[in-house]
Amino acid sequence: MIVVQTVKEMQELSKKYKIAGKSIGYVATMGFLHEGHLELVKRAREKDHIVVMSIFVNPTQFGPNEDFDQYPRDFERDRQLAQEHGVDILFYPSVSEMYPFEQTTEIHVVRRTDVLCGKSRPGHFEGVATVLFKLFHIVMPDNVYFGLKDAQQVAVIDGFLKDYFFPINLIPCPTVREEDGLAKSSRNVNLTAEERKEAPILYQSLREAKKMSEDGEYDADKILRFIYNKIEQSISGKIDYVEILSYPDLKPIKRLNGQVIIAIAVRYSKVRLIDNIIWTIGGGK
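Predicted structure:
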């Protein structure tokens, strides 16, 4: 595995592989890797000739109340995991390498951000889009792999790639879960023992809501009430939101039809958990 720290070297390597007819699969991360990231690497390894992973804690996607400096970092651990799981190139740039001077342009994300987590994180997706615009031009991937645990991010990236005609395939990958259904996350270690016991209720409620629609209930308000009641009666955490939307457009709906998402966020004492389920009414996942 090669560790690359400069934009110039990464671009030169990508050009070399392109000329040789090699496909590049890309996994963008902020490090502190967990099984969800490594599953994305596995998918890329199966499909592409060359697998590139980036580790970059991007300052432009952190809000004023979100501590960029406290984000967990352990490069040596991440480097070892990346190498063990078949990453060919680990792109590890500094902030000054990615933002060498004051930006002369800005990217504004105008759709798919005023719901779910985007409501409480103004400017977050502008930061995501900005860094991905840079990274996609640096890595020049054929395929990019993102986990559906953060389904709103996947929807924003989907629109972004289409808006600007990027010659890149977006490959959304299913959420990686614990045996009891809890979505895997590095944040789960911050749950108390009691909270960890309760947490699988989130996914259980999503699955039961999906079953309601499969049994013929298409009224979004009735399904939302069911989820609220189940969660409020079963956990000590506080519901941040429960929303039913079209996907990937992320528009409110009254009746379930076509591809939809039900997404949940719950705040516990030291951690905020998110989860979702996406399926197509009448079939699909």
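Summary: The two ends are 35 Å apart (CA to CA).
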